[in-house]
């Protein structure tokens, strides 16, 4: 069975993607900071008959990243690494003039440094996997200038660049930065509380991720809404 590591997997897009992969026979290593929510998500996913290792912790912690990769190794390796865990930098979001620098450091640490650290930890197993793949979950805020989204957007722009360079440096892997588009998630609710505009559920964009995994296009940056339109 192929093995995937998914960070930020207790809810939202991470959980939806884990559920879809489990239904397709993938074994999973799931991460999130909240132990109770992660345990519940893992139990739900395991209902598909897949093997699931759920490790609660902070991806910014090097020891936790090592534990995630070790768990995947026990399951057989790492075929897919999905960096989905994210930090906003401020909740709710604020303009750059008011953005706490500690918040910006946290966003960079989680969204960029930890993502690269996990790739570095997993690279030996990814290189050995037939079709080793890395997905960095990005945002349209990485490419567009939205008021109050500056810190978060800057961290995602940096993540996009890391993914682009990794694709060049590791030609044996597939590396994609994927903008999932607007979604109704707890992260968005924390970023913009009280925004009543309807947004699609995370599971509606999962088919875009599955399409990438199945079709394996060249490394690069992809937008889920565009992939879904091509179906």
UniProtKB/TrEMBL annotation:
GO terms for cellular component: membrane. Keywords: Oxidoreductase. GO terms for molecular function: oxidoreductase activity. It comes from the Bacteria. Transmembrane segments: none annotated. CDD domains: SDR_c. InterPro entries: NAD(P)-bd_dom_sf, Sc_DH/Rdtase_CS, SDR_fam. Belongs to the short-chain dehydrogenases/reductases (SDR) family. This is Short-chain dehydrogenase. It comes from Streptomyces yokosukanensis.
